[in-house]
Amino acid sequence: MASEDVKSTESAAVSTIVNLAEEAKLAREGVKAPSYAVLTICKSLFAGGVAGGVSRTAVAPLERMKILLQVQNPHNIKYSGTVQGLKYIWRTEGLRGLFKGNGTNCARIVPNSAVKFFSYEQASKGILYMYRQQTGNENAQLTPVLRLGAGATAGIIAMSATYPMDMVRGRLTVQTANSPYQYRGIAHALSTVLREEGPRALYRGWLPSVIGVVPYVGLNFAVYESLKDWLVKDNPFGLVENNELTVITRLSCGAIAGTVGQTIAYPLDVIRRRMQMVGWKSASSVVTGEGISKSSLEYNGMVDAFRKTVRHEGFGALYKGLVPNSVKVVPSIAIAFVTYEMVKDVLGVELKISD
């Protein structure tokens, strides 16, 4: 009987040790470092920020020209085209005039780009996981439609997070040396808008922006990633070297992606800019330049802005500034994608956006 008690005690002790070992194992697994360590996340965000800053600065004069064409008063045309407009700015404002608003633009685009690229990676991983669970195929890859969804998600997150900066950047960009009222910088513009127009003014035009982001950013990522996959897998033009695409080829993929996305979403960008001017007392003078033949810049919402723009200026007004924007987008998107990948490669971050 005594020996049975000893065996029972030994068995209980062994069971306890095994249970403790299993609990310790589970505890270790529970606190195991995630796939994206803090340092890796920081590197990814840094790469996205650098990509945004470099690409946007390279095309800053065209960006300013696009916005000026979008918001100018149709009754007093000051800028008749891209080349004429750039020459006029150079003559009246000099080199600094071509890059006016770029500091604000970079202050917005750097965090926007960082959040956008990182959000796309995370959204892609989450969507791919759910897709594999749904299909039961552990080897399934993202389809173009799923990439579109991941890109749209990333665009909405990035746009919402940095929209007040975009709104202020638009106003800083369109003011000239002859404007009756001057914003002295980002902080001054933000405080002035808050004081004179209220906090809601910082998100004026947000809805068309978000709607425009869905096709724009979504198509950028979907077209770029799908083009790269197709070229690597099928190699239809013999452009693949050591299972990798050259920088020129990747730039071309980015240019095509940017052109497709911006052409579809451009009318919403025009409406967004015009809505951002609403409530600004000096807006009419800024967009007409000389302060004559001013017309009211009042819209009751996105639909009203569309209706008034088309009724008073025609359907073509929805594509004002498309030429400088197209010239800008081709290198900008291409440079952003390639710079992002190159910086991540330099930092030693694994490039697996769609796996």
TrEMBL record:
SUPFAM superfamilies: Mitochondrial carrier
UniProt keyword list: Membrane, Mitochondrion, Mitochondrion inner membrane, Repeat, Transmembrane, Transmembrane helix, Transport
A single cellular component GO annotation: mitochondrial inner membrane
Coiled coil residues, start to end: none
Positions of Solcar repeats: 39-126, 142-230, 245-346
Primary subcellular site in the record, as a coarse category: mitochondrion
Pfam families from the UniProt entry: Mito_carr
Keyword 4Fe-4S: no
Subcellular location: Mitochondrion inner membrane
Membrane topology of this protein: Multi-pass membrane protein
Family classification: Belongs to the mitochondrial carrier (TC 2.A.29) family.
PANTHER family membership: SOLUTE CARRIER FAMILY 25
Protein name per the record: Mitochondrial adenine nucleotide transporter ADNT1
